[in-house]
Design a protein that fits this description.
Layout lengths: L1 H5 L5 H8 L6 E5 L4 E9 L6 H14 L7 E7 L4 E8 L12 E2 L5 E9 L2 H9 L10 H12 L1 H7 L2 E9 L4 E6 L8 E5 L2 E5 L2 H5 L10 H10 L12 E3 L4 E5 L6 E4 L3 H10 L6 H18 L7 E4 L4 H13 L5 E7 L7 H11 L2 E7 L1 H7 L3 H5 L8 H12 L4 E3 L4 H5 L3 H13 L4 H11 L4 H9 L10 H10 L6 H8 L5 H4 L13 H6 L3 H11 L1 H15 L4 E3 L5 H7 L15 H8 L18 H6 L3 H7 L2 H6 L5 H13 L5 H17 L1
Helix pairs in contact: 4-5, 5-6, 10-11, 10-27, 11-27, 13-15, 15-25, 17-21, 18-20, 19-20, 24-25
Length: 677
């Protein structure tokens, strides 16, 4: 009865035969392809009724509805106290054979899976050579049957793509979680007394009646520095992010065990020890060939597909290679702003015209952007304050009206040394270390004697080739680091917002790899060290988190071909001269792009993906911000120094200083606290 009640009528006949081998305590209801939200739990402390398990599982899948609006699926084993949940966004194999949760052919394993694996055809062929016949053509089924044959670890080594999955072994009653190498797809987990939970977002865990949230003050301090909470920590005690490249195994009645199947540090060190010693043309050929394969694999979909296009190096390279790989016109999407210093839309349009794409552009009004702000706390689930979350959501929302999958250029800066701060840190420290510290302090005082706005005005008077967006903010940031003692401290300061001592004086932050002394020993070259640290911190915890939440909030799947792990491994084998040459960043990646797009369309100062946040906080966002930064409200919390916050807010409103990013951290924390506590 339960099976027939919970399954759509059109599937019941085909399911009844498959269900004959299932235990009577197992329920399978709903239907699913593999995108885009997963959750589940294991109850070990007490016997829980089937109805109770189902009620909790239903609450979990409802909480993730935005990640997969097409359908849902739930698998329950009442005797084991296990429930697995999946939300569906149909991408590949839209038939019944692709639905999740999915059982292996022999009925031993059950999987819920979020992501895309682009090597499934090769793995499938090997399995078929043994005589196995697949029911459909989804990569989910291939992953499942590979696990049945060689196990999770050996299967993980074969997967190319983005994935977060959970597998329940019905024979050993073991749960296994797996996250992709770079952290493209998220997975959270929590262990309480007698209960283990996991989910794509914290919303799913909050849906469990045993959820007992307690904010970690250390996490608040870390958030104020980074604008995100570094993995493996979350904002809550006893709740964690599964780190990239990790496998978590929960044996029956035991404690979670963690192991790496892909180690970014070892990949980087291996590449540095075995550099490519080829001429420029050969290196360019090698990179272009690999990128063509990475892009081509990510263009496979049974739904409309397009790409984000900013007109910068990374997105333009992805779109150019999409055009080279496609027999049909590529769809591209970009947004622009009315303020010229934040508007990359004309550059994107020029690249689109050259490549002949079907280009859609949205010039965002302040009202459209500001309408996103009240929804950010809901969207990002835990405090997150990268303000480019706003344009990322807007371009995703616009793109979703036309396609279901979009390729993105994320990852190019980390792999090919594209961030301005890399060269800034190297050059600045080389000069800084030659100047006695008292003289540096005096210089800092001089640089801050002019407000950021005054500096911007001076730069605007210069010829266009000397123009620098947000020059004033950058100059003040430089001034703030003149007092530092060594290069790593300088780098850490450049990527920080608040220092926790400023705003959370009684709380110690979590100190992870950014303070790891072994990183300086392993990576004696400063550029290598900065790239490695960004690869394992900023990339997964900020950039990829932003893209996942903003795109999945409106059920758009974003694919990131530059973060194919084979591209990452190749990038670490490149000599420094292939990354930065003659002051030009991402040199080798540019050589690939220039084979498809004229240099003059690309060669310009890096802008980033920002919004005029400082102006908005003094204008249309002022009332909203004031309500969150009121003295009475700030005094209610035990986490922040209300006097410091109010002083920074007053200075920002006066125009004397531009504290937009520091204040945005506080605002996003307070907005999150208002929504979730």
């Amino acid at each position: 009865m339960l099976l027939e009640y919970w399954c759509p009528a059109r599937y019941r006949t085909s399911l009844k035969s498959a269900a004959q081998s299932w235990s009577s305590s197992t329920v399978f209801h709903g239907w699913q392809v593999k995108m885009c939200g997963i959750a589940g739990f294991v109850v070990t402390s007490s016997r829980t009724s089937l109805d109770q398990l189902r009620s909790v599982a239903d609450a979990m899948h409802i909480s993730l509805q935005h990640r997969g609006p097409d359908d849902h699926g739930v698998w329950i084993d009442g005797e084991a106290g296990v429930a697995l949940v999946h939300r569906r966004l149909s991408i590949v194999d839209l038939s019944i054979a692709g639905h999740q949760p999915m059982l292996s052919a022999n009925g031993r394993y059950v999987i819920v899976y979020n992501g895309e694996v682009y090597s499934h055809a090769e793995i499938r062929a090997e399995i078929e050579a043994t005589g196995h016949r697949f029911r459909g053509h989804s990569d989910t089924e291939v992953i499942l049957e590979s696990i049945d044959r060689v196990g999770v670890r050996a299967t993980a080594d074969r997967l190319i793509g983005m994935f977060a999955l959970a597998v329940w072994d019905r024979k050993t009653q073991t749960l296994t979680l797996l996250r992709d190498r770079l952290g493209i797809k998220p997975i959270y987990w929590a262990k309480f007394t007698g209960l283990f939970m996991f989910g794509s977002e914290l919303k799913a865990l909050r849906s469990h009646p045993a959820w007992t949230p307690k904010i970690r003050p250390n996490a608040v301090a870390s958030f104020m520095r980074h604008n995100y909470i570094p993995a493996p920590h979350t904002i809550y005690e006893n709740v964690y992010k599964l780190e990239p490249g990790m496998i978590l195994t929960l044996p029956f009645g035991g404690e979670p065990r963690l192991e790496k199947f892909w180690d970014a540090r070892q990949v980087a060190l291996s590449g540095i020890r075995d550099p490519l010693r080829e001429d420029d043309r050969t290196l360019t050929d090698r990179l272009e060939s690999l990128l063509m394969d990475a892009v081509g694999r990510r263009m496979i979909a049974d739904v409309p597909l397009g790409a984000f296009l900013s007109g910068g190096v990374d997105s333009s390279t992805v779109v150019a290679l999409m055009k080279a790989a496609s027999a049909v016109q590529v769809k591209t999407f970009s947004i622009g702003f009315e303020q010229a210093s934040f508007n990359e839309a004309p550059h994107a349009a020029a690249v689109a015209r050259h490549l002949g794409t079907d280009h859609t552009e949205l010039v965002v009004t302040p009202r459209q952007a500001l309408d996103v702000v009240p929804n950010l706390a809901e969207m990002f689930d835990e405090p997150f304050a990268d303000s480019s979350q706003i344009p990322t959501y807007l371009v995703s929302a616009m793109t979703r009206k036309h396609v279901t999958v979009a390729l993105s250029g994320d990852g190019g800066d980390e792999l090919f040394a594209g961030y301005n701060r890399y060269e800034l840190t190297k050059r600045f420290w080389s000069a800084l270390s030659l100047v006695p510290r008292p003289m540096r302090l005096a210089l800092a005082s001089g640089l801050t004697s002019l407000s950021p706005g005054r500096w911007d005005g001076l730069f605007n008077m210069l010829p266009s080739k000397f123009a620098r967006p947000q020059a004033g903010d950058k100059i003040h940031k430089i001034a703030s680091v003149l007092q530092l003692s060594y290069a790593d401290e300088l780098y850490r300061r450049l990527i920080s917002h608040w220092t926790p001592e400023q705003i959370t004086p009684s709380v110690s932050e979590d100190r992870g790899v950014l303070w790891d002394e072994t990183a300086r020993k392993d990576f004696p070259n400063l550029l290598d060290r900065m790239q490695f640290l960004d690869l394992v911190t900023y990339l997964p915890d900020d950039i990829l988190t932003k893209v996942d939440r903003a795109s999945m909030a409106i059920a758009l799947e974003a694919r990131v071909p530059l973060l194919d792990h084979r591209v990452v491994e190749l990038a670490w084998r490149l000599p420094h001269s292939a990354k930065i040459r003659g002051g030009e960043t991402k040199w080798l990646l540019r050589q690939v792009l220039y084979r498809h797009v004229p240099k003059e369309l690309i060669d310009r100062p890096k802008m980033g993906f920002g919004v005029p946040l400082g102006e908005w906080l003094r204008g249309p966002l002022r009332d909203w911000a004031e309500s969150l930064l009121s003295e009475n409200r700030l005094k209610e919390t035990e986490f922040l120094d209300s006097g410091v916050v109010r002083r920074y807010w007053s200075e920002h409103l006066s125009g004397r200083r531009n504290w937009q990013y520091l204040l945005w951290n506080v605002l996003m924390f307070e907005a999150w606290r208002e929504r979730w506590t």
